[in-house]
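[User]
Um, tokens okay?
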Amino acid sequence: MKVSHLNNIHFIPHVHWDREWLRSTDASRIKLCYYFDRLIDMLENDPQMKCFTFDGQTAALEDYLAIKPFQKERIARLVKAQKLFIGPWYVQPDMIIPSGEALLRNLIIGSQYAKSLGHCMQVGWVPDAFGQNKVTPYLFKQIGMKGIFAWRGFDYDTLEDSLFLWKGNGDTVLPSVHFALGYGHYRGFPENYEDVKKDMENFLPKLKERYKDGEILFMLGSDYAFPRRHSSQMIEKLKNDQYPCQMTNPEEYLDTILKTAKQNNHELTVYEGEARSAALGRIHAGITSTRIDIKNAMRYYETLMAKVVEPMISITRSLGGYCDQELVNYFWKIIFKNQFHDSIYSSSPDSINHTVENRLLNLRHGLNELIWMNFRFLAEKVDLSELQDNEDILVLFNTLPYARQDYAFVSMIVKDKDFVLKRQDGTIVPYQLMNEIKETCHDIEYYNGMENFHDSGEVLEGTKFKIQLKIDTSFLPAMGYEILKVCFKEKTEKTLQGDVVITDCGAKNKYLSMNIEEDGTLTVTNQLTGETYHRLHTLVEKGDDGDEYNYSPCIDDKEIRINDTKPTVELIEVSSIEAKYRLTFNVKVPEKVVNHHRSDEKVALCIVTDISLKANSQTIDFETTIDNHSCDHIVRVTFDDIYTSHQNCSQDQFGTIIRDNVITNQKGLDNGATEFVLPIYAMQRFVKLNHDKSIMAMISRGPLEYEVEDNQKICLTLLRSVGKFGKADLLIRPGRSSGYRMDTPSSQLLDKKITSEYSLFFGESHQMSMLVRNAEVLNTPVQSRYLNDISRQQNQNLAWRYENIDLDSRVELMAYKKAESGQASVIRIVNNRNEDIENVILSIDADKKCYLATAQEEKQEELINKDGKICIKSMMSNTFITVIIE
């Protein structure tokens, strides 16, 4: 075959390494050790084996070096010599489910580890994420990458060439390479050279069409694939047969193809937005709700880390406290390991899902202890000499950089039910005792300082009392703490006053009026606009013939409307600050799916929803628990807007994204698409219809999968129960299974109670910033601890109240943390509005020096501190900035 007209054929030897997918991390680690031993030997001893790319991540390298630390020097030599390419990720994550801060920190920690070994690969590497996020180019540009390599989600209709420009947030544009036939289209050369030439004749015509400038890319590797020992020899033989080919790496290839495109005056296609096509590779619409219990927990812990743990540490560090960033990063790495794409998808055998659950347990223990360290610090450093013997303290942290307008939940075990809460100056802080006592965490770490085994024992004996209450948070400082006295044997007539009024079967405040109908749906009037919404919170159930990858409908399935069975309704909280109703639905649903049909046998399904309206609030809050006893089904809750739109607007990692409710540009199964892509999407915190009328938005504290039906109905998935790792011949995905056809009983969530929290926000059309602020407050509760084991000494004379920073109301906090190196602090701020803003004000101590910095925490420009006010001149829409504070 004559190929001299081609500029070049490039082979990138690589591997896609799933830390855990078919096997657990430790099972894969065995294979990994043998893999790296052979790879090091090959790269050191075969001079023609020019380079190798290890999947754009570093966690697997840590896994290997944990077993063989003596190999670190050899690996560092190969990395420094740019024979072994690693980074910039710590793990290959999903790009859509994790938060923006989690994705960014994954890159920061991964790239810094790679640099410590000599070199970090300077391109973003996304071989196997199930669809591409629109923030991807912005994310990689912020971390200093020169380009991107990606696969799933793109198709030939939108990209005429595998080289294109990907436009991201702000003014970001990054050159990007699409793996034309997938990241693993050529696992390695056959042993027989004649077969190699046949491969070239087979693949080159296909690839030529995708590389307009003639720089043809062969991906020489795939999942767990070790490079053939004769790879370099085969490339030499091809050269001798006049094939203009070479072994290369992603950095070198990107430079080459861009240079050639420039020489050819090739005007590259500009692509903007996310990529969710299944024309070339499956994107698996359904992984966003598989094992929703795990996904809810992961959302909780990544938020807790970024919005609570690190800010609390930063507050106490500013007062002389101490915590190494390496300790914090250890727990970030646990989060990242759970956000590895196959792990967070829960598209794995049961053993992997159990591994993920174990890491969630480690996070629960570790993050609770990191939180407690800050309460211990204050107990030991604050001047408590004025406390009397009958006075203990309650410490409250607000880790948001602005004043709040909500209610803090406080749980205490006390020696006397009669007490008064007072600020240091004696001002009484009223509270409202809760009727219902919620279960709190019973880890030993949680008992430190708040509850301990002795206190719990005395509760059982009746000598101490467990009480729970709510306090108005409006007096709390921004990004700081306040200590209250708990004064026993005192009483007060002062009570917490709100604007909630109980009605016949509902409640109202100055913003909202809600009524619970006989079928359990809500009718809500937005009192700011006078508009009334009906059929809110309708629960529906239907069959799911899919697997851990995809939701797929059953044949002849009919949706069951749970509300057709009249619920029991109880009023469980009654006060002027909160009205809470409990609705209990007991219904029968089909037991399972057999041969694509739902069975005739029925089993019980119990759904309990607590509906709460609080004082001065524009949200109605829901907590729904599903007691699941059936297989192969999905449960959703729906909310009808009074307006319609063909599009929806949801929050993504750095702002919002507009999506079509119906996917109209599908290639279709009949035309060779790998699956029929359903309009099932993922959000970060909220979703609304995309219109400019009054706002009705759904805010979530856990569930992230939504769909909009009939251009009016927002549907939130609360449960997806499936029993197969992979399954063949689905209605929406015919043919082979994804993954392997194995049973995964844990993903049925049988006999489990799955709890999800979410809210409905109602506002005027101009209140998008208020919606964002409400989403932040709902997901970042005040942290409190009641302390009775205290010194009542002067200690180090720290104050009872402290405010650290205050932030402009037009922006939100992404992170407030210790610098990765040195003793400075770092604050990251995001403008998730759809408009540029100017003169953003950050209030800090007047003696601090501040610098605009890169995401990698490299100083760029000093910011003038004028009497404790820092002015950031401008921020583009849907972008963030990083500030170093010294």
Summary: Confidence is low (pLDDT under 50) at residues 1-5, 444-451. The radius of gyration is 29 Å. The CA atoms of residues 746 and 761 lie 34 Å apart.
